[in-house]
Amino acid sequence: MDAYEKKIYEILKQEFSPKNLEVKDVSGGCGSMFAILVESEKFKGIPMIKQHRLVNEVLKEEIAQWHGLQLQTKGI
Known about the structure:
By secondary structure, this protein is of the alpha+beta class. The protein has a single domain (about 5-75), classed as 2-Layer Sandwich (GMP Synthetase, Chain A, domain 3). It contains three helices and three strands, in the order αββααβ. The protein has helices at about 5-15, 50-60, 60-65, and strands at about 20-25, 35-40, 70-75. It has a three-stranded mixed β-sheet. Strand 1 (about 20-25) and strand 2 (about 35-40) form a beta hairpin. The termini are far apart.
């Protein structure tokens, strides 16, 4: 995991206290597209679209610099 992936990882870890968290740069290393998986109790009972909105809000400043995001969330 490179420094920017770690930064995103730490932001999500602090906000959602996930049971499972994966952050991967899928842009070939240029930091413009990420695949993110977040499994958290904070998502339990919340529709997936709202789970995604919560993640998007937390990463708003970072996402503004990206070309794409592959996001998976799950309430556990």
